[in-house]
Amino acid sequence: MNPNVLEKYRIKKGLNCSQLCECMGKTAGWYSRIRSGRHPLRTEHISKMALIFGVRPEKLAKEYFSKEKLDDTSI
């Protein structure tokens, strides 16, 4: 799992964490746990987050669940 993928898309979309959480209907604590990798992003949230980011759900899921790690420079 690659939580950095979520940060890459969030930043690219120009959203701060609070804005993303508001769009998702979730708390900052929820996103913090997802972002840190302590909790995985559930598949039912992939579609909504992909819509917010403007990417296909399949693309977001593939990148998020990939075993390859993103470099910090790709964010």
UniProtKB/TrEMBL annotation:
It comes from the Bacteria. Residues 6-60 form the HTH cro/C1-type domain. InterPro entries: Cro/C1-type_HTH, Lambda_DNA-bd_dom_sf. CDD domains: HTH_XRE. SUPFAM superfamilies: lambda repressor-like DNA-binding domains (SSF47413). This is HTH cro/C1-type domain-containing protein.
